[in-house]
Amino acid sequence: MNAFKNALDRILTWVCVALFAVLVVDVSYQVFVRQVLNQPSGWSEVLATYLFIWLGLFGSALMFGERGHIAVDFAVRKLPEKVQIVVAVIVQLAILTFISLVLVWGGFRVVGLSWDQNLPGLPVNVGPLYLALPISGIVTVFYTLYHLVRIVTGAERAVNLDAEPELL
Amino acid sequence: MDSAAIAGLILVVGIAVFLLMGAPISVGVGLSAMAALFVILGVQNGVLTSAQRVYGGINSFPLLAIPFFVLAGVIMNNGGIAVRLIGAAKVMVGKMPGSLAQTNVAANALFGAVSGSAVAAAAAIGSTMGPLQAKEKYDKNFAAAVNIASAPSGMLIPPSNLMIVYSLVSGSSIAAMFVAGYIPGLLWAGACMVVVYLYARKRPELKSTGRIGFGAGAKIMLEAAPALLLIVVVIGGILAGIFTPTEGSCIAVVYSLALSFIYRSIKVRQLPGMLMDATRTTAVVMFLIGVSSIMGFVLSFAKIPALVSSAMFGLSSNPVILLLMISAVLLVVGCFMDPTPAVLIFTPIFLPIAMSFGINPVHFGIIMVFNLCIGTITPPVGPVLFIGVKVAGLRIEDVFRRLMPFFGVLVVVFLFVLFVPSLSMWLPTTLGLVKP
Amino acid sequence: ATPSGSSTTAAAPVATTVFKVAFNQPETHPEYIALKAMGERLKQRTNGAYSIDVFPNETLGAQADTIQSVQSGTIAMSVIGGSLLESLNPDFVVFDLPYVFTSQAQQRAVTNDPAVVSGLYSSLDSKGVHVLGAFYGGVRNVYNKTKPINTPADLAGMKIRVMQSDTNIEMMKLMGGTGTPMGQGDVYTAIQSGVLDGGENNELIYSTLKHDEIAPYYSYTRHLMVPDYLIINPEIFNGMPAADQKIFQEELVKAIDQENTEFGAQVDAAITAAKAAGAKFNEVDTAAFQKAVAPLTESKLTDDVTRKIYAQVQAAAK
Ligand code: NA
Ligand code: NA
């Protein structure tokens, strides 16, 4: 399970880096062709929006893998360790429920409904772009199960003490 | 009870319970909103609509400014730009009492003016300034408090990612929000400087670090000029019509990247790591924005903001009292919650009420951001407080005591921002970004 | 079950099925006013069995999202711009072409004439989208910050904001300018600061978004007259008793009439307001623009369906 997680981490990391790098190039290109060449692009803004959605969703999956989503844990930290484990298990189950219902099931339904809906400006349909929802959902489900097992077996702390404050 | 009331109850109770259990805020909000949708739409359509909202909530070109400004901040953090900004800040504050602490305040404001993140400022400036101040016999806890208290000014001074989030939920112009933040942001920094001044005046040992000669000052400013030019390039480029605010954020990335390569302070192989740092922050915020959009759907579908506002008008019809009530709620919320989710959750509820007594959405945005920024330096949930304490290697309790005077002054400044609309509105109105 | 939304026991004696309608414009828009009034008449004539609740300002999501909500039955109806239906069935392009209609009255007649549209409007039923009828969406004209436009040559070098599609960019190129797609939220600042020289839209949007203050030259190119469609989930519609369906259709016809009249009145008011804000309106050499964009129309009529409908529209103009 660990080896699989490491491989998944690495793939997701490189996907995110690539998406982000293309994003920077795409928007720079948009400004350049409009302001310098006076030839506005018809697709750069649409492409940027989709790259960004994929980056956000895959990055979010990766953050579930790192247990890095913003949480308020001051109350939990004061609990006895046994109770902390119980609470942490409930939290992981809550993540599992939300992700599998919304991102995976709901995601596949949206993909189905929009599969052959065409997208102006880009040579792709809307449906495949929505695949980011179920794919990131399935990855997150794996990560959540991974943490669930490790919390129950005591391989990992109930409260993530290394969580860095993330804020805009 | 009708389904709207049940949905509202599920939202309130669900979010509170998950928050207390330490669940990711996004999951707490998302799961509660999803359950509320189940009540209104049934399970089948509830999951579909939820998925659609997560995706639709982040399907927005203007939101792209967030990853870009975050990335620009990361690059500047690694690229030696912080050190040059500190140099410039030092020259600017001259030999005021407590000049080293004043430098810290000014450097945070400058860092805020070129990046969108208060946490990045507190980390980058604090880790450099802390040791310097210790050497000059400053009380460590006071030095850390100065750094922490002044860092959030950068969330008001443009560019500001929090303002972008507010623009998204309120529908107001990003350019107008950016410009509106200048004066309140500078007032924030000024308030911190006043506290430092009063503290240092009675401590002769903190008088000054010695004057910087004209030649040396000019040299420092010249070195910092390219970094400071970023403000001119990005904000100037937006106002001059070369690019939109969203595109400007990408230009900020390109510019700071170029600068860092010129300074030779970063290497190409460091880039993937920086992109990942920015991805982490961005992804967390994006997911939060996505799931908040499920909640937004529930709120409008069940017409909950109308219920809340009629309840509030039932308590009082006096705008001043209602504004103070909203502000008090936000101040308490800010203690327990990060500003981004708070903006996402409370804007749709409070903005219509504020607008009903004639408050401009841009002004209300500044009110919210200023108020919630105070929360970033308070326990129990205070990201700027945490990072500032961490880089200084101190204890929260000790630093918190030194923060108290800053809170007092900031709350007073907040009341001015609340009741004097022109502090927020004068600049954007003068520049024609909002209608008078 | 009422997949269209909540059942509430209001003042009416029986439970009312409330059709939720997603709408992307504010409450003052002619389509909102007409749909709301239609809901009241519908409720009265069906003895409270059916009514309509319109959700303005995109509160139920962007137009593209609301199509899926209608498909799934999450909401009953939505008002959709023409180009979005093109993404589901390219044949809808006919009504979105430049200069396809000669007048508001002609568009109103043709786009609601069963002989012309019944096949087209039912073509998406299997995908969960039925088109009930078409509202008048205004006529789009070019406006800019520099000078009145008379001929395509006047647009040379001007960046004009267009809707996000290659067709619109191509159209603006043929009209002499440079089509620049951009989200509407950025347009005001972009024109003001000079990223853009102008935009193209109907008088209502021009005045409501205050573009008259920053781009005072509004020139009647009348290049696009794209209808807005009212779509419904076919299962929900077919689930209504035949008698109620008939009432619904009758009231919709009245709503479309009301909307057309109201739109005209609002355009007059918008022109007055824009003039007060300093805008100047002028007529253009329409024939020159028509000639310029003709190749685009040709290239879009690619199959028998579109060519047949186009011919019918042309015939109705005479
Ligand atoms: Na800033
Ligand atoms: Na706090």
Report, as a whole number of angstroms, the end-to-end distance of chain C. Answer: 49 Å
Unreliable spans of chain C? 1-12
How far apart lie the N and C ends of chain B? 44 Å
- Rounded average pLDDT of chain C: 88
Task: Explain what this protein looks like in three dimensions.
The complex is a heterotrimer of chains A (168), B (436) and C (318). Chain A has six helices and no strands. By secondary structure, chain A is mainly alpha-helical. Chain A has one domain (2-153). Chain B folds into two domains: 1-59 and 285-302, no CATH class; 60-266 and 303-430, no CATH class. With 436 residues, chain B is mainly alpha-helical. Chain B is built from 22 helices and no strands. Chain B is 79% helix and 0% strand. Chain B starts with a helix and ends in a 6-residue tail after the last helix. In chain C, helix 1 (30-45) packs antiparallel against helix 11. Chain C is built from 13 helices and twelve strands. In chain C, the strands form two sheets. In chain C, strands 1, 2, 3, 4, 5 and 11 form a six-stranded mixed beta sheet that branches. Chain C has a six-stranded mixed beta sheet with strand order 8-7-9-6-10-12, sandwiched between helices. The N and C termini of chain C lie far apart (49 Å). With 318 residues, chain C is α/β, with parallel strands linked by helices. Chain C has helices spanning 30-45, 63-72, 82-86, 104-110, 114-122, 166-174, 184-193, 203-208, 211-214, 234-238, 242-276, 286-300, 304-316; strands spanning 7-8, 16-22, 50-55, 77-81, 130-135, 140-144, 159-162, 178-181, 198-201, 217-224, 228-232, 280-283. Residues 1-12 of chain C have low confidence and may be disordered. Chains A and B meet through helix 1, helix 2, helix 3 and helix 4 of A and helix 1, helix 2, helix 3, helix 4 and helix 10 of B. One sodium ion (NA) binds next to helix 6 of chain B.
Reconstruct the topology from this structure:
The complex is a heterotrimer of chains A (168), B (436) and C (318).
Chain A: H1 2-35, H2 44-65, H3 74-77, H4 81-114, H5 126-130, H6 132-152
Helix pairs in contact in A: 1-2, 2-6, 4-6
Chain B: H1 3-20, H2 25-41, H3 43-58, H4 65-78, H5 81-93, H6 99-114, H7 118-135, H8 140-150, H9 153-156, H10 161-170, H11 174-180, H12 182-201, H13 214-240, H14 245-262, H15 271-301, H16 304-315, H17 319-336, H18 339-356, H19 361-375, H20 383-392, H21 396-419, H22 422-430
Helix pairs in contact in B: 1-2, 1-15, 2-3, 2-15, 3-15, 4-14, 4-15, 5-6, 5-13, 6-7, 6-8, 6-12, 7-8, 7-20, 8-20, 8-21, 10-18, 10-19, 11-22, 12-21, 13-14, 15-18, 16-18, 17-18, 17-19, 18-19, 19-21
Chain C: E1 7-8, E2 16-22, H1 30-45, E3 50-55, H2 63-72, E4 77-81, H3 82-86, H4 104-110, H5 114-122, E5 130-135, E6 140-144, E7 159-162, H6 166-174, E8 178-181, H7 184-193, E9 198-201, H8 203-208, H9 211-214, E10 217-224, E11 228-232, H10 234-238, H11 242-276, E12 280-283, H12 286-300, H13 304-316
Parallel strand pairs in C: 2-3, 2-4, 7-8, 7-9, 10-12
Antiparallel strand pairs in C: 1-2, 4-11, 5-11, 6-9, 6-10
Helix pairs in contact in C: 1-11, 6-12
The structure holds sodium ion (2 copies).
